[in-house]
Amino acid sequence: MQTINELIEKSKQLTPDWDEMLVRIRMVERHIILPLKALILPVIGFISTLKVWEINMNTSWDTTMHLVYLFFLLYLVISIAWGILIWGMNNLKQWQILTIVFVGIIADSLFTSAGMIGSKGFDSPLFWIFALWIIRVAICLPTFILQLIADSLICLFYLISGFIEVWAMELDGLERDAFSEPVTIRIFFLVILSASSMGVHLALVRQQQILKDSQEFHLRQEQIRANGRLAGEIAHQLKNPLGIINNVVYTIQRKIDRGSTDINPQLQIIREEIERSDRIITDLMGYAKLAEGTLERLDINQEMDRAIDQVFPKGSHFDIKITRQYAQGLPHIMMQRNHLSEVLVNLLSNARDALGTQGEIAMRTRFGSDYVIVAEIADNGKGIPSEIISQIWTPYFTTKAKGTGLGMSIVKHNVEMYGGSITVYSESGKGSCFTIQLPARSFLKLK
């Protein structure tokens, strides 16, 4: 059962781009199905209206056909509403368009089923229309689950209509002629066609994703190498002068020590500033490591847990409660693990420091709109004062005695480098919540 659930969760991630789906839906639903209905529906409406008034319901067969023609009139109304919505689909949301397409396919399948009852049931030539509807499902419905439901209903409608035709004839004492071919062969054909269509759809979508992942991987690697070379050059250019300054100060101190002038406090200040600058440069050199490592498909939930283990290692005695609210079945994100780890560990460490000896941290993940993964790290600590909240992303700004002021700027850099964003909401005395949004499919942004 667990394996089946895992396969279903993976199949949910295999969906084509929505822009591609819109092209398919416009081509099939608006440019093919809609014109055909515009030609056929008036004829169906006219014939059904005449038949409803002409049929004398003396037998079970007459009653059955009377209901069939009534359904045709209902189908006419549904199709008119469907046509109006499909024509104006540009103003609709994604879920609304998919709902309309799904309802249209089911309504057309029911219409075909009703038509079978008056045209030899299981032997009806309308059987081949069911095959076309199955192909239509593979083209116009993006997800495996929707396709599975639609194909199952199409096969079920075929079976039900055939049995209704046999049942209505038997009630009147009529015998059904032998079928021209076994019913099981037709049913088997529909099932195989459904499975093949879904399989081909999933294979094509998977191949497109592999191609996009490959393109994304090479582009990101090249941009990361460029950032790394730039950062390495900057760090190299700044670190050499600092080393020279340090040596010169040491020489000056030795010379002054031989005299009577006491400028040791000033020299100590200079040395401390040099040490501070050295720490800043060391942190900046972290950017030079951008070219190292490889991109990976990361599970955000696992990375959140990994960050918790780093900030709160086993054996540590923190009276801090950590709650996990993770959404399941989230798409993977393509990043270097150390980049994402640096983001999560920094935010989690800040939350720990803000709580002090006790408190609560909430780790949450969910799926946002536009194929975005949302991760939240919230605490109920003292919060960030409103007068400095806009400055926390500024390089070198810090409220910590020994901080370099680069932690949050690096966090923001790492997130935005992958096309994401990070925001913070905080109230003094009520805690803070950092919200990270990372697209599961995006290209690195050139800075």
Could you walk me through the main structural features you see in this protein, from its secondary elements to its overall organization?
- By secondary structure, the protein is of the alpha+beta class.
- It has two domains: 2-180, no CATH class; 294-447, Heat Shock Protein 90, CATH 3.30.565.
- It contains eleven helices and seven strands.
- Helix 3 packs antiparallel against helix 4 (94-117) and helix 7 (183-257) packs antiparallel against helix 8.
- The longest helix is centred in the middle third of the chain and has 75 residues, at 183-257.
- The radius of gyration is 34 Å and the shape is elongated.
- The two termini are 47 Å apart.
- The model is unreliable at 442-447 (pLDDT under 50).
Q: How would you concisely characterize the structure shown here?
A:
The protein is an alpha+beta fold and 447 residues long. The chain contains 11 helices and 7 strands.
